[in-house]
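for the recovery benchmark. tokens below, seq after
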């Protein structure tokens, strides 16, 4: 690489950097506007998060045959401090026609259903799942507000309510998140470089990489080649900015070092390429391999991150290896103004003296002197905190806990749980062969944890039809009400009143309803006795599946609770498959890069220990300080992929330099020299990456906040403890054997 650069014709040395700079500015100009358009191709609906092979996913596919649109139930719950009157119920029902006409409402609104304690009522509004729920939901709410219904308050909750809250939370991704991340990085770069131009150049390197990534991903998503959602979008922004900045820091550090040794900026660029090309390529390749392992996931949201994140990292590498060197070559040493490096003897001498008096030289001296106590002590401390990782509650959280801070849907769910059966509005959907409906009904009613059962039907506004003995129960209730009214009539008035049987027959709402059958299948909707997000409700889903298998193995059980249960099972399966795969893949890459077997195994072991320690610290804080209800199962998987893949970056930055120095002066000296010269850049890179991931915390989503904390803390732990103390001290103690079986093992 160095020879090719130095041997290039003069015209090419002038033309190529200019062309590359114009190409990247063009990519920024074209891709920049797509920051505001990327939401057009992002889908934050629940379908993208379903486990592909799960029973609940198959049920969801079958349900599409029973309705014109894929809808989510929005539950409007009305409540007050006294019994809700018949007049109020009629006022609520009167709004149904207005609500049904709203664009994004996918069917008739159910009649108001009064709670047993008569202090609350609910209606179900079917909302089209691919509509802009954060816009449709406010319109539904406004319709009920404009009706001026007295004596009650109301909240919209249920799956549609929570989906609207999520859409609203994700709406800050392409604005607040991006600006926060860029501002944090810019401030850090100013502190690191104490320069005017370098922070701008490095920031442009990140922005152009992200612009090019978004441009490509937008068209791929538009063509349905890749999937995109708010979660993936947010991680993409952070990943590209963090990775591009890290690679830029490494290249700039090499360039600064080369300028103290070379008067020619061409030779300095060539030296920089020689030292930075392989580590950047290996580092980016490692992250891409780690991300691509997510293709083994059974969850669509996890799979979506694999190609999208990989494209982003690829552009981060490309930008750091083309645009950045071109800008540095164009500006030369003046990129660092006002602190300009120089190859003049007195300047180089001052620079060397500063290094020898600097912090990292002191750290190197400490590790050199106390290497064995250092790695033993740090290992023990890390291991103690790693034990707490088993206390991390990553078995899922209730839907109502997804949003941090204020949530209207959460408030509505609280009222719903207080006055209605726990599963009201979020029924389990059971797909049953037409001939097995009666048998399935008996099994469902006998299963503990179920409250009531209805069937999807035609000919009724509510879209459901009572089954079994429910018809007679409802008729009996109507008869009781009619007889109460008749008891207040005089004998003269009764002569002219219709018969009780006639009134009951006319008042019975389901007389014209028939069970809806499509392709020989019917849908039973089961209201669960417990809250749909609770463990008891999940246990009921498992029991229903087991019991219904005795009727017909083709019967399937889905719905919101089943989806949550299947997602947890899929996440546990993903961890068992993907984590070992990532470890094996990264180990192979390190072995090829370092030409060694021992060193990569030690580095992987230190990274895994660092990850376990991070989870332990997270468990302590999540459980006892932040008081989180738990964590999504994918938090551990994403945390592992990012921390191991990105943590290996610093291993690569350190160990490629240690190997380079070991070739010159032996392993024992080489590891200390490698620590001293890379300490500053690794620390800066770690702080930048931690800060960019921490920026995810501005999005009020529990999952993103937890990922932000785990990755940010883990990166800092890797930077300041593992890479600065544990790894150098351990290698210093082991000596040249770490390079086994390469010939370098013989060089002490």
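predicted aa per position
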């Amino acid at each position: 690489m160095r020879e090719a650069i130095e041997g290039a014709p003069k015209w090419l040395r002038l033309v190529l950097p200019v062309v590359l700079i114009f190409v990247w500015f063009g990519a920024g100009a074209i891709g920049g506007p797509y920051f505001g358009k990327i939401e057009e191709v992002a889908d934050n609906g629940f379908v993208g998060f379903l486990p592909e092979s799960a029973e609940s996913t198959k049920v969801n596919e079958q349900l599409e045959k029973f309705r014109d649109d894929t809808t989510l139930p929005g539950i409007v719950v009305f409540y007050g401090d006294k019994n809700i009157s018949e007049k109020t119920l009629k006022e609520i029902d009167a709004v149904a026609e207005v609500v049904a006409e709203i664009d994004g409402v996918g069917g008739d609104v159910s009649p108001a259903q009064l709670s047993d304690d008569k202090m609350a009522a609910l209606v179900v509004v079917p909302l089209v799942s691919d509509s802009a729920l954060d816009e449709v939901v406010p319109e539904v709410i406004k319709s009920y507000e404009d009706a001026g219904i007295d004596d009650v308050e109301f909240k919209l909750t249920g799956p549609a309510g929570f989906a609207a809250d999520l859409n609203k939370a994700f709406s800050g991704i392409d604005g607040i998140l991006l600006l926060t991340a860029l501002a944090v990085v810019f401030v850090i770069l100013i502190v690191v470089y104490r320069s005017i131009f370098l922070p701008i150049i490095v920031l442009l390197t990140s922005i152009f990489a992200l612009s090019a990534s978004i441009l490509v991903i937008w068209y791929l998503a538009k063509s349905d080649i890749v999937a995109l959602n708010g979660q993936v979008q947010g991680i993409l922004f952070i990943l590209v900015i963090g990775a591009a900045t890290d690679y830029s820091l490494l290249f700039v550090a090499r360039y600064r070092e080369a300028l103290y040794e070379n008067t020619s900026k061409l030779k300095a660029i060539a030296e920089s390429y020689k030292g930075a090309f392989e580590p950047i390529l290996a580092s980016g390749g490692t992250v891409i391999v780690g991300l691509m392992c997510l293709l083994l996931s059974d969850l669509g949201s996890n799979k979506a991150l694999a190609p999208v994140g990989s494209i982003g990292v690829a552009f981060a590498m490309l930008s750091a290896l083309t645009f950045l060197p071109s800008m540095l070559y164009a500006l030369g040493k003046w990129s660092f103004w006002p602190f300009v490096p120089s190859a003049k003897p007195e300047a180089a001498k001052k620079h060397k003296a500063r290094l020898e008096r600097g912090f990292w030289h002191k750290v190197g001296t400490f590790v050199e002197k106390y290497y064995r106590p250092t790695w033993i002590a740090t290992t023990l401390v890390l291991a103690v905190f790693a034990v707490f990782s088993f206390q991390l509650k990553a078995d899922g959280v209730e839907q109502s806990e997804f949003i941090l801070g204020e949530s209207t849907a959460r408030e509505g769910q609280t009222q719903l749980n207080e006055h209605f059966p726990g599963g009201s509005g979020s029924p389990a959907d059971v797909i049953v062969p037409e001939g097995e409906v009666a048998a399935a009904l008996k099994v469902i009613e006998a299963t503990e944890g179920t409250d009531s059962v209805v069937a999807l039907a035609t000919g009724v506004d509510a879209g459901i039809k009572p089954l079994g003995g429910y018809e007679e129960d409802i008729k009996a209730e109507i008869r009781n009400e009619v007889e109460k009214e008749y008891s207040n009539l005089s004998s003269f008035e009764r002569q002219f009143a219709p018969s009780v049987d006639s009134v009951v027959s006319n008042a019975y709402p389901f007389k014209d309803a028939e069970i809806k059958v499509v392709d020989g299948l019917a849908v039973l909707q089961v209201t669960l006795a417990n809250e749909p997000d609770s463990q008891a409700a999940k246990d009921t889903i498992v029991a229903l599946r087991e019991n219904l298998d005795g009727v017909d193995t083709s019967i399937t059980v889905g719905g919101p609770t089943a989806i949550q249960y299947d997602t947890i099972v899929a996440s546990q399966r993903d961890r068992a498959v993907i984590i070992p795969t990532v470890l094996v893949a990264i180990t192979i890459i390190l072995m090829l890069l370092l030409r060694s077997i021992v060193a990569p195994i030690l580095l992987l072991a230190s990274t895994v220990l660092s990850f376990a320690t991070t989870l332990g610290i997270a468990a302590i804080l999540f459980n006892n300080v932040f008081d989180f209800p738990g964590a999504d199962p994918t938090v551990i998987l994403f945390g592992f992929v990012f921390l191991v893949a990105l943590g290996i970056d610093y291993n690569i930055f350190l160990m490629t330099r240690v190997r380079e120095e070991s070739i010159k002066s032996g392993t024992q000296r080489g590891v200390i020299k490698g620590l001293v010269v890379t300490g500053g850049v690794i620390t800066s890179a770690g702080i930048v990456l931690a800060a960019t991931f921490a920026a995810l915390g501005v999005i009020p989503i529990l999952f993103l906040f937890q990922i932000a904390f785990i990755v940010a803390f883990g990166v800092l732990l890797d930077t300041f403890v593992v890479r600065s103390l544990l790894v150098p001290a351990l290698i210093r103690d082991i000596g040249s054997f770490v390079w086994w079986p390469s010939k370098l093992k013989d060089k002490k």
